[in-house]
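FAQ: What does the model actually see?

It sees only this:
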Amino acid sequence: MNRLRYQKIQSLMDEGEPVCVTFSNEKGSGSSLLYCDLVHRARFGESFVIEGQRCKPGDYILGISDVDPVDYYIDSGRYKDENIAKKAIYSLPRVKKDFRSLRIEPLHKSEGYFDIMLLYLLPERAMRILQAFAYHFGDCTIPGTIGAASICGDCTARPLLSGMGISYGCKGSRKHSGYRDEELPLGICFELSEKIEEGLKDIPATFD
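And it is asked to produce this:
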């Protein structure tokens, strides 16, 4: 079971457990919830297989829809003008995979392969994930964030591209899914997950 393989990673979360996301070809259904809300619910034990969800920007970022959310970003009031809103949406990472559905489930229900593991961590715990990566590779190239598309972009699409993504959250995910103000979402691709687990076993404790 994956839960036994990733005990060190699991121990970093104060509440709930890591969430595994898999891009699948199985039949799913649409959801009236947002992707970030579904991931947060999976943190506490629920499982979902979805072919769509309620957030239009999320559908675009996750590769479910090809309709870009430029109008949504223009109308959001978060950007100075139309050109800046367009620049913002096109700066975000986007999933480019062939799939039918997304399986979203807590770590203890996941068996074998997954695409992304998502964590909600206090800053010191997030630091240890970065240190575990650096233990193996000597660096960590995590691109920045603009405070938008946190769970779908920074922590799902970006790890598919670069291995790992960390976020300060976004308005939608903090408003709708309700993770704590002091928590940082972080995503790790499957290919890095065992390296991170191994690194956590070997690096010194923070307060030794």
